[in-house]
Amino acid sequence: xxxxxxxxxxxxxxxxxxxxxxxxxxxxxxxxxxxxxxxxxxxxxxxxxxxxxxxxxxxxxxxxxxxxxxxxxxxxxxxxxxxxxxxxxxxxxxxxxxxxxxxxxxxxxxxxxxxxxxxxxxxxxxxxxxxxxxxxxxxxxxxxxxxxxxxxxxxxxxxxxxxxxxxxxxxxxxxxxxxxxxxxxxxxxxxxxxxxxxxxxxxxxxxxxxxxxxxxxxxxxxxxxxxxxxxxxxxxxxxxxxxxxxxxxxxxxxxxxxxxxxxxxxxxxxxxxxxxxxxxxxxxxxxxxxxxxxxxxxxxxxxxxxxxxxxxxxxxxxxxxxxxxxxxxxxxxxxxxxxxxxxxxxxxxxxxxxxxxxxxxxxxxxxxxxxxxxxxxxxxxxxxxxxxxxxxxxxxxxxxxxxxxxxxxxxxxxxxxxxxxxxxxxxxxxxxxxxx
Length: 436
Ligand code: ADP
Ligand code: MG
Fold this sequence. Notes:
- It is globular, with a radius of gyration of 25 Å.
- The strands form two sheets. Strands 5-6-7-4-8 form a five-stranded parallel beta sheet, sandwiched between helices.
- Helix 1 (2-12) packs across helix 3 (44-66), helix 12 (286-295) runs parallel beside helix 20 (419-433) and helix 15 (343-354) runs antiparallel to helix 17 (368-384).
- The protein is of the alpha/beta class.
- The chain has helices at residues 2-12, 15-20, 44-66, 83-90, 117-128, 147-160, 170-182, 186-194, 211-226, 247-253, 266-279, 286-295, 300-316, 323-340, 343-354, 358-362, 368-384, 389-395, 402-417, 419-433; strands at 26-31, 36-41, 71-76, 137-141, 165-169, 198-202, 230-235, 257-261.
- It starts with a helix and ends with a helix.
- Bound molecules: adenosine-5'-diphosphate (ADP) and magnesium ion.
- Residues 147-148, 202-203 line the site of magnesium ion.
């Protein structure tokens, strides 16, 4: 049913893609003799987008539900297509590997910065000499920071070099395993996982508490490791921090190399936005790129969602891509971010970055350094929160709020003419939005 499929799909996709597009999918029917699953969506653009990005994933979801692997067709609501037409479109699209890899997740399309350098270099090293140097490789870090991208880049590279790979999330591994038990087909399961050259397991943290699967994975791991086959895993945390993971797996996961991905700094974020928009064929003015980079949250996935929306608005509503259009598009998202930022956060971060005491900012001191920091705090408080000028004055222990508006005016002037000041502000914004 639609509900079943969507609930599986929800776990396999990003929240923004799911909420905006995928949840509109309506499952129509499966014509079992031709093995076609048909879905409808109300909009042609969305249909094409889902088709190109998600049809294999949807196919896999259906497979995990009932074991069939139908051809997935996404149609416009009410559109008539004959089976013949659908099948004809699919010719030439059949893939050699059953593994779903996103072909755009390559090393080339990955932007390297200090936040992900270590994980990137380790992934490259593993691709050069699989099974030998760092085995297993364990990549960990927050969501949307490029773990899956790197994992699949290793996979895409391995395929290019003629190696057999398996890429699965640990949940798919578990489903496969349960399915094999149910159908008394363990032999097939075992040989499948043990004959690959490179095993790529995504989101291994979900092994937590799954004892039987851990047991099975333990054996898979040992066999592959003994045979010097490469194992790469990703997780949102370190092995030692995965609750309910048996010790022998914890220690094995640390046998090789653990490398983390962190929140990118502003420069890296800008480079990623530029790369992604180039790949999507959109040209964004520098001020728009800066706006997105400094106003959006940590997750690169979220930034990508925004680029897709910009693209969609431009295509569907025939809008020109300019700053007001982007600001308008991001209003809701930024509002959410704003509600989370509190004045003390701003003071703390500005004080740390400018190397002064937080208490100085609220004091009566008038040294140039303190006055400058105070100005920056005032400016950022207006930009990044919903506080009114009197609120800010009160918080800073200032008597009248005319000096607040004066400081804001002055800050705006400086941003206009002082490139250095502007950079400091952008960096601080980035730090405040990504704090925590
Ligand atoms: P994770 O698995 O860590 O949650 P993903 O690998 O799914 O994150 O990354 C989310 C999105 O952000 C993907 O589309 C990915 O291509 C993109 N992304 C993340 N980091 C980078 C990077 N350094 N360069 C280019 N794209 C990136
Ligand atoms: Mg991931």
